[in-house]
Amino acid sequence: MIEKSKIENIVNEYIKGTDIFPVAVKVSSTNRISVIIDTFNGILLEQCADLHRHIETILDRNSVDFELQVSSPGLDAHFAVIEQYRKYENRKIEVVDSSGERFTGVLKNVTKGGFELETEIRIKGKKSEKLDKSFNFDQVKSAKAIYSIIKGN
Fold it and tell me: Domain of 54?
């Protein structure tokens, strides 16, 4: 069986000095390897393909068979690492806290311990008010980006 730490080391060594950051590395008991990477400007298909080739050249298929997938997190993926929060700073996200309550707002002030969410509170008959809500990462069940799809002509 291929060790997860071996794949993490290969990935971390490959991305050192680049703007790529690892989001997740998974290795199943059947050697199905999944590597998810990203950058602050969005990952390119060729960056995924280059890392895929690099991992394949290091692993020996003659000694152990494996399946390898290298990809981006995807539009609807929940944030898994602090770099994803930093990537979406000043953009709209959805947060579900540990009690299951949902919040939507603009992500602000990401730190090692947490972040702030600028939300709008609408009170019937009044103008909406902006409210900053602070979250520690251990209070967050999930968080993900909210995308606006603009219809073209």
Answer: 4-71
